[in-house]
């Protein structure tokens, strides 16, 4: 499959002949979740955005943001990030031959994401502050220097990410009544809603935030957001109004899920559906299990935004222990069979 710009060019702000920086993102699996369906009495599908080239949905937006930056003659890109945007921006700027700088909250990004950003050669800046402070600062930096901002305040990011909604509509022939999605900086829910409306389908948009980082649920910014789901440890989402509009106009809602609920869904998906996502992604399924989807829903799609390998540390803390064994047949048999 080609990347999303080639696949959906007529619905994106790119003309034939424009430069395209792509790693063949998009065209991700949509998998029927049989155990979750049994559990909920619904038909539950999982959109596996961890199958994108850098392991998260950000690649859909990043191919557009970086391609547009190249078209505009930019030499460098920058973003604030809880990790996945940083990994994606680093990869696409490496592919494009641009310089990349990523500002991340010190000590609060998952190991895999940090490894990615560094390997792709970005300048990685660990801010003694949180994501919201980092975003505020990078907005000031780009107002003073000719550097392209690739956070989801950049409209090209929304354009690219809306293509996930197109893929879902195509795969299910437009037959879905609800979408469950984690919400952090609120770009992705904004993008899905735009994509669905452009495709003429209006599922109920159900956004889920971590309880310790739930500004949209409380109706006011959270100064010190905290959650195990570091990707959505965000207290003042940039796309606040648009996200609220998506949820209200679709008859949806925004609700909170606790870290314990997120981790339970995270383990359930890995153990029972064969799908390893990162903790923030599991907020969509936690929301489905804890809050339900309301009346008259037959089919629901949960977006799993990032791959579980992004955050090996949380996985090892949540998983069972390995079984030590001497190199001897009897010992192996006991270890395997008992
Ligand atoms: C796995 O990388 O904000 O509501 O800087 O990595 O569009 O912010 C990541 C967000 C959900 C929330 N799931 O999406 C970043 C960043 C995962 C994420 C979200 C993020 P938005």
**How much strand content do the residues show?**
15-25%
Helix content: 40-55%
Radius of gyration (Å)? 20 Å
Spans with pLDDT under 50 lasting ≥5 residues?
none
Give the topology string: H per helix, E per strand.
Answer: HEHEHEHEHEHEHHEHEHHEHHEHH
Description:
With 338 residues, this protein is of the alpha/beta class. The chain has helices spanning 4-8, 34-40, 58-71, 84-96, 111-119, 131-144, 155-161, 163-171, 187-198, 215-218, 240-249, 259-273, 279-291, 312-318, 329-337; strands at residues 30-32, 43-48, 76-80, 99-105, 123-127, 148-149, 178-182, 204-210, 253-257, 299-304. The strands form two sheets. The chain has a six-stranded mixed beta sheet, sandwiched between helices. Strand 4, helix 5 (111-119) and strand 5 form a beta-alpha-beta unit. The termini are far apart. Bound molecules: ligand AN7.
């Amino acid at each position: 499959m080609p990347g999303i710009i080639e696949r959906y060019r007529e619905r994106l702000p790119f003309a034939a002949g424009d430069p395209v920086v792509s790693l063949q993102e998009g065209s991700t699996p949509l998998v029927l979740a049989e155990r979750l369906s049994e559990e909920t009495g619904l038909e539950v599908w999982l959109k596996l955005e961890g199958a994108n080239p850098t392991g998260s949905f950000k690649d859909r937006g990043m191919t557009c943001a970086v391609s547009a930056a190249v078209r505009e003659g930019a030499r460098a890109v920058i973003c604030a990030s809880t990790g996945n945007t940083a990994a994606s921006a680093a990869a696409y700027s490496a592919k494009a031959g641009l310089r990349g700088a990523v500002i991340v909250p010190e000590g609060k990004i998952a190991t895999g994401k940090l490894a990615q950003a560094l390997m792709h050669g970005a300048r990685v800046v660990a801010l003694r502050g949180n994501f919201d402070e980092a975003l505020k600062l990078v907005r000031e930096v780009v107002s003073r220097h000719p550097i392209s901002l690739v956070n989801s305040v950049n409209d090209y990011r929304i354009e690219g990410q809306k293509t996930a909604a197109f893929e879902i509509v195509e795969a299910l022939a437009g037959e879905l009544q609800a979408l469950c999605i984690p919400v952090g900086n609120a770009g992705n829910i904004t993008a899905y809603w735009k994509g669905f409306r452009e495709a003429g389908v209006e599922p109920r948009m159900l956004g889920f935030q971590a309880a310790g980082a739930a500004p949209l649920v409380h109706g006011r910014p959270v100064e010190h957001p905290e959650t195990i789901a570091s990707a959505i440890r965000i207290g003042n989402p940039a796309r606040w109004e648009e996200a609220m509009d998506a949820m209200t106009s679709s008859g949806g809602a925004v609700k909170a899920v606790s870290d314990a609920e997120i981790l339970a869904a995270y383990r359930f998906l890995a153990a029972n559906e064969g799908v390893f996502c990162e903790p923030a992604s599991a907020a969509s399924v936690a929301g489905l299990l804890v809050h339900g989807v309301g009346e008259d829903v037959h089919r629901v799609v949960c977006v799993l935004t990032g791959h579980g390998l992004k955050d090996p540390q949380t996985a090892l803390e949540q998983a069972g222990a390995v079984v030590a064994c001497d190199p001897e047949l009897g010992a192996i048999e006991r270890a395997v069979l008992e």
